Amino acid sequence: MAGSITHVIGFDDAPFPRKHRGDVAVVGAAFAGMRLEGVMIGKVRRDGANATQSLLRLVSQSRFAAHNQLLMLQGIALAGFNVVDIHALSAASAMPVLVVVRKQPNLAKIKKALLESVPGGRRKWRLIEKAGAMENIAGVYIQRAGIGAAAAQRVIERFAINSAIPEPLRTAHLIAGGLSGGSRQRV
Hints:
The protein is α+β, with helices and mostly antiparallel strands. The chain is built from 6 helices and 9 strands.
């Protein structure tokens, strides 16, 4: 299946000030092979609980919905601790979901922060656990839903052209940085 995956949307959130409350922009970069086909912009609540539904709405209402084959996320949480239920997103969109990060996250620190200072932290921690252990594949760490490890590796290797991070995520990251009035470094 992964050899035939050509249409991917990568999502990342825009940077925001540490004390920011409210909505944070989320950017989706839609790729057909290595060509950027379009950009979608939505919002999720800082430390909220609407990331899964917001991404699903963005994808399903986009002109890319009919052809898209896989969703990539730059981390399992957007806008701080708005954790995506990757299994629910995969099931509802009928597409595999691949979370990609450069470094292994400090799960003990994340769990402590969630349980001690984030509204709905216990539920959010359960979503992280439900996503499964981080796997070191193709030079990055991933979590996955609806796609096997070998297929995930082929997708990452196919789309990781300019860095270890696949182009749909790298592009979403750069665009999201520009939205905040600044810039983001290349990933």
